[in-house]
Amino acid sequence: MFPSNTIAWYTAKMFVVRSAAFLIGLIVILESLDLLGESGKILAAAGNGEAELWTYVSLRVPQLVQLFLPFSVLLATLVTLATLNQNSEVVIFKAAGISAHQILAPLFIAAFVIAVGNFAFNEAVTTRATAQLKAWQDNEYRRTPAASTPVQESWVRGGDDLFRATSVAGVGDATLLKGVTIYDRVDNRLVRIVMADTAQPVADGWRLANARSFDVASGTVKTAPTLDFASVVVPRQFTTTSINPAFLPLWELRPQIAEQRAAGKPVDTLVAAAWHKISGPLSTVLMPLLGAVAAFGLARSGRLFVRAVIGMFLGFAFFVADNFMLAMGNFGAVPPVMAAWAPFVLFLLIGEAVLIRTEE
């Protein structure tokens, strides 16, 4: 893999230094522009000053690192390989018997190390910073959250029936629903609306207190002190909370996905997000392969710039495809694993095909 350790260290060092330089430059520029847009909102909150501006920067920078690190690696790949080509160093490497894959191998190893570091940083730092920033922004950048009563309204579907509860308390058999409305449907047709003050789980359904039942066909209303309503809806469907994958590290997200699945709630979006927490950072490994077209071909042929543009096009095409497939996964149009991994596998094959066809 490494016919020359000297060449391997030389190319890997060039690649890593340029990746860091591009990342720092992008972060400084983008964070400066972002801060200009948000500083007015931050300082508008009573008591906020310079310290709060730096707090915003510390919470926003991890998000920018997560978003733009793959772009930085792509740009670093193009500059590194184009420089080697321009200086005829690629010709020297090939004359020494080093193949195209062996020239790129140090970059692959360095990119994989960057990907591992990026994954660890995203899960340990970015998730926490994102949750804190979102809560701060929802509170309009005030120092202390405004006192408010949390809304606990919950909608649940079981078979054709829809349950609505204005508040939920307790767990398991002790679950208590208040302000209950049940839309009793048969073959997606509404036949009855049942309302009750409270509902508690019983065998094969729920026991409603102070129930009022409206029959759609006859237009009549019946009341009963208690009413047992048979349903496949179980208490944990009400007690499992909504999950934002951006706020949770992978090792906390996976158990919560299992809990949501056990409660009968859709989890395809969460599964796609969980897989993307791995495939996203790992996309940096693809960048040396997609940008490899800039390394080969004679520099004096005048096509080095065209090759660099082609490499940049392949890299940005991957990011477009990745975001598109993730959106399709969120809509449920494709399986979650395909949504997270299909762009990675596709562009891995494209990059290898181009490299083997032209250089190997």
UniProtKB/TrEMBL annotation:
Query: Can you name a GO cellular component term?
Result: ATP-binding cassette (ABC) transporter complex
InterPro entries given in the database record? LptG, LptG/LptF_permease
Report the locations given in the UniProt record: Cell membrane
Task: List the keywords (alphabetical).
Answer: Cell membrane, Membrane, Transmembrane, Transmembrane helix
Q: What is its main location?
A: membrane
Fetch the NCBIfam families from UniProt: LptG_lptG (TIGR04408)
Descriptive protein name: Permease
> What broad taxonomic lineage does this protein's source fall under?
Bacteria, Pseudomonadati, Pseudomonadota, Alphaproteobacteria, Sphingomonadales
Which terms does the UniProt entry file under GO BP?
Answer: lipopolysaccharide transport; transmembrane transport
> Is Cell membrane one of the keywords?
yes
Q: Which domain of life is it from?
A: Bacteria
Q: Where are the transmembrane segments?
A: 7-30, 64-82, 103-121, 305-326, 338-356
Recorded hits in PANTHER family, A to Z, give: LIPOPOLYSACCHARIDE EXPORT SYSTEM PERMEASE PROTEIN LPTG (PTHR33529:SF2), SLR0882 PROTEIN-RELATED (PTHR33529)
Topological relation to the membrane, as annotated = Multi-pass membrane protein
